[in-house]
Design a protein that fits this description.
Layout (H helix, E strand, L loop, with lengths): L29 H8 L14 H14 L6 E3 L2 H12 L5 E5 L4 H10 L6 E5 L4 H7 L4 E7 L11 H11 L3 E4 L4 H4 L2 H4 L3 E5 L13 E5 L2 H13 L6 H11 L2 H20 L4 E5 L9 H7 L7 E6 L3 H10 L4 E2 L9 E3 L11 H6 L6 E5 L5 H17 L3
Parallel strand pairs: 2-3, 2-4, 4-5, 5-6, 10-11
Antiparallel strand pairs: 1-7, 6-7, 8-9, 9-12, 11-12
Helix pairs in contact: 2-10, 3-9, 5-6, 11-15, 13-15
This protein binds pyridoxal-5'-phosphate.
Length: 390
């Protein structure tokens, strides 16, 4: 069997982006290859180096983020974080980072990068003064997330970007939670934008992908080269699915956010719920900042605390089974997670309590279901938890 059967020629174009899984691309002649490598013509050679589905997806996210240079699509959000770190940091360099970053980002900073001689200081990003105090002469990067997981604190982005500019230190923003619907880091002055495309941008929990873009063209090129060299490339199928998911991102985000704001209010009225965290609610500690920074967009994440301990948490999770009890976020359907037994299990109970995360703490990634379905499911779950004897 040879591969002689040619792809059919067509004067018409497909409406939908074709899925292009080919790893290898043929060229006409060595001269044609030279022209391609020199950028005189454009084409593909080997899919780790780039492929059409990654390119289409990347240009789509570039537009959403108003990226000054084309971003690099990676095989996961962590690959994007890794590429951003390794392209900007060398042995001896120091990073100042948020102390409530995504768990694996924290492990990258505290376990992996120190082995390469890169150190990090973790600070509370709602406190720009603390962040400023952590900057050293060898600080080469500030890494923050705008809304923290799972306590949904809002970073003082204005303060951080201003002090970073004074200190001449670039700022990388992991915009996964906020998404370009609520916050656009480049427009606000950030230097690098990172996404776990796995989450809200794709939206269907069937894609693992990431994205990273840089304001500086040289940094952008270093990130891209690093991603190709280290093999951080995303698969064509994942990119193709992510592009499809992105087409409804705006609609999904708006609906999920409306649901989240309404669910937060509903939860606050249920017996046994001692605390509700939603950035734009008036009882949230960063309520004013959320209104100003996020333009009143509270996003799709809601956290809440119920009375009691593990027994009550088990009862709530068991009853919420109609929704999904799963530690992820950004799916079209609502998922509920329990940080004490999943994302934050490595911390001691005392450390979790200090972060405001007792056993009864739950995080909800709100989806696009009819609001009534969510209200009913949470009412039943909270009641089930309450009737569990302490
Ligand atoms: C999930 C997540 C990541 C990592 O993304 P993966 O696609 O799972 O590798 C990074 N940052 C944030 C804020 C996340 O939520």
């Amino acid at each position: 069997m040879t591969r002689r059967t040619p792809w059919p020629a067509s004067v018409s174009q497909p409406l939908v982006s074709p899925l292009q899984p080919s790893v290898v691309y043929t060229a006409q002649t060595p001269d044609a290859l030279d022209a391609q490598y020199e950028g005189v013509t454009s084409g593909y050679t080997y899919s780790r180096e780039g492929h059409p589905n990654a390119q289409v997806l990347g240009r789509h996210i570039d537009v959403l983020e108003a990226a000054p240079n084309p971003g690099t699509v990676t095989g996961s959000g962590m690959a994007a974080v890794t590429a951003a770190m390794l392209a900007t940091l060398n042995t001896g360099d120091h990073v100042v980072a948020g102390n409530q970053l995504y768990g694996r980002s924290l492990r990258l900073l505290t376990e992996t990068l120190p082995a390469l001689g890169i150190t990090a200081t973790l600070v509370d990003p709602t406190d720009a003064a603390a962040l400023k105090a952590a900057i050293r002469p060898e600080t080469r990067l500030i890494l923050v997330e705008v809304v923290s997981n799972p306590t949904l604190r809002v970073a003082d982005m204005e303060g951080i970007l201003a002090l970073a500019k004074d200190a001449g230190v670039p700022v990388a923003v992991d915009n996964t939670f906020t998404t370009p619907r609520a916050y656009r880091p480049f427009a606000e002055g950030a230097d690098i934008v990172i996404h776990s495309v796995t989450k809200l941008l794709s939206g269907h929990s069937d894609v693992m992908a990431g994205y990273v873009a840089a304001r500086d063209a040289e940094v952008a090129a270093r990130i891209d080269t690093l991603a190709v060299t280290m093999g951080l490339t995303a698969s064509p199928f994942d990119c193709w699915l992510a592009e499809r998911g992105l087409l409804t991102f705006d609609l999904r985000f708006e609906r999920a956010q409306e649901n989240a704001a309404a669910l937060a209010d509903h939860l606050s009225g249920l017996p046994g719920v001692t605390r509700v965290l939603y950035p734009t609610r008036s009882d949230h500690p960063d309520h004013n900042r959320a209104q100003a920074l996020l333009d009143g967009k509270g996003g799709n994440m809601v956290s809440f605390v119920i009375e009691g301990g593990r027994a009550q948490a088990n009862a709530l999770a068991g009853e919420v089974a109609e929704l999904a009890f799963a530690p992820t976020l950004g799916d079209v359907s609502t998922t509920v997670s329990h940080p004490a037994s999943s994302s934050h299990r490595a911390l001691s109970a005392d450390d979790r309590a200090a972060l405001g995360m007792p056993e009864g703490f739950f995080r909800v990634s709100v989806g696009i279901e009819p609001l009534e379905v969510l209200r009913d499911a949470f009412t039943r779950s909270v009641v089930a938890a309450q009737s569990e004897t302490p």
